[in-house]
TrEMBL record:
SUPFAM superfamilies in UniProt: Actin-like ATPase domain (SSF53067)
Carbohydrate kinase FGGY N-terminal domain sequence ranges: 4-248
PROSITE patterns assigned to the protein according to its UniProt record, in alphabetical order: FGGY_KINASES_2
Xref: Pfam families: FGGY_C, FGGY_N
InterPro entries in the cross-refs: ATPase_NBD, Carb_kinase_FGGY, Carb_kinase_FGGY_CS, FGGY_C, FGGY_Carb_Kinase, FGGY_N
Source organism of this protein record: Pantoea rwandensis
Stretches assigned to coiled coil: none
GO MF, one annotated term: phosphotransferase activity, alcohol group as acceptor
Official protein name in the record: Carbohydrate kinase
Domain Carbohydrate kinase FGGY C-terminal: 257-440
GO annotation (BP), single: carbohydrate metabolic process
Amino acid sequence: MSQILGIDAGNTMIKAVLFDLSGRVLSVAECAGETHQPQEGYAERPVEDIWHGVSQAVSRCLQQAGSDPREVIAVGAAGHGNGLYALNKQQQPLFGIQSIDHRALATVQALELSGADQAIYRLSLQKPWPAATPVLISWIKQHQPDRWSRLGHLLCAKDVIVHFLSGAISADYSDAAGAGLIDYRLRNYSRELMALYDIEDALALLPPLRESCEVVGQVTEQAARLTGLPAGIPVVAGIFDVVASAVGSGVVETGQASIVAGTWSINQVVVDTPDYLRPVFMNSIIEKDRFMAIEASATSAANLDWFLREFDDGRSGQGAARSSDTVAHVEPNAQLPLYHPYLYSGRKSEPAKAGFYGLGGWHTRADMLFALFEGVTFAHRAHIDRLRAAGIPFTQAILSGGAARSCIWPQMFADVLGIPIRVAECKETGALGAALCAGVGVGVWPHLAAAVQQAVQINPGEWLPRPERFAFHDARYRVFKKLELAMGEMWRDVG
C-alpha cells in the first residue's frame, strides 16, 4: 500500500504523519521543541533542534505504523512561515529565529517612519512586521555583524527540514511570498525589494525558488539512518504551513476560505489575482495560478493553552478537553467579562497586551473561559473584517487547528462571524497539505485540486449562525474594539 509522509513544523511542535492515498491517517508522532529566550522579545530555536525533532518524529511515526517503510513513496514538509533560519558557508547550522520574535520592532518602526513600508508593500504585498524574514535579515546585518559575516544560506523552517532530509538548498513560492521576499512583478526575488530593506547583498544567500510540489532531492543515506526512511525517496520543496493547512482542509479553489485557530489566528481566502481594495497583512501563492490573501496574528487558541497551563488547579478535570464543556454551560449575558487575546502580539505592529476587562467578584472561572473563547474569536473577526474591506468576500469557511476539535468553538465562530462553519475530518491538516504536495510531485495526482478531491474529507456537520447569538456577540465585539482603542496609549507606555 503506497504511503505519503507529511511533516509539519510549527513554532513549538514538529509532527510526522503517515497517510495512505485516501488521506487516512496511519500514524502520528510528534516531538516538542523549546523556545530559547536569551533576551526579552527574543524567540530562538537552533537549527539542530529542528533536525533532532524531525529525526525523532519520523522514526517514531514509522515505528508506530508497523508497515514496511519502503511503502513510503514521497515526503513533503510544511513549516511556520517567516522567522529566519541560517546555515553557514559550509551548510552547517548557524542560528534560528522563530516567527514570534520581537527583537526587530525598532527596524519596522524605522521603515514606517521613512515611508519605505509603503514601497515594500507595492512590490511584495506585505508590510514589514518584526518577525518578517527580510526584517530579521536587516536586523542581523545591522546588529550582529559577526553572524552576518558567517552567513551561507537563509532559509525558512520547512527549508531546514528539506535540507536535512535531502541535502537540497531550496525554497518554495508559498513560503517566500508569505515571508515578504517575492516581488510580484517578477514572481521572484528582486534587488529593488531587497534595497528597501538595505539587504541587497542577501540576494546571494537566498535559496533557489521551486514550486511547492516540485521534487528537489531524495532522502540521503545519512537522513535514512537517522529517521528510518529508505534512502532515495523523493522529497518535494514543501509549503508554507498556513497554506498547507488550507490545502489539508480542502481549500484550494478561488473563493474558498480557511480559518486556522492554533497558535496563530489565520484567516485566508483563495483569489485569482492579488488585487485588493486595501492592504492585507500577507499574501502567498498556491500553485502557479492562484494566490492566498491572508490576515493573521498570534492571537488564537494558544491563549487557552496558556490559561490552562497557568491557572488550571484541577477543577477542569481533563484540561483543554473539558474547557469547552465548561464554556457551554455559561449563560450569555451582557455582564460577562471581555478578554483581549494579545499574549504574544496584537494584530498590528504597535504594542498590545492581553487582559480581562469588567471582572466582578461574582464572576467564575467558567465566565473567564467564556471571555477567552469569545476574545479569540473576536480577533479572528477583526482579521476577517479586513479581508472583506479589501474586497475579498466569502460566504462560508472551513475551520481547522485546535479550536476545530472543540465542542463549542465552531458554533461560536459561526455566531460571531455570521457565516456557516464546517470542519475538516483530518486533525492534521498541515501535515496532510504537505503530503498532498508530495503526492502531486511524484505523479499520484496531476494537481492539488485532484489531490483534495480524493484525499480530503469534510465533516458532514455544519454550524450555522444563530441570529440572536450573532446580535449578542456583535454588541460585545463593538465594546471589545472600543477597549482596544482606549488601551492603545497605555500599551505604548508600558512597552
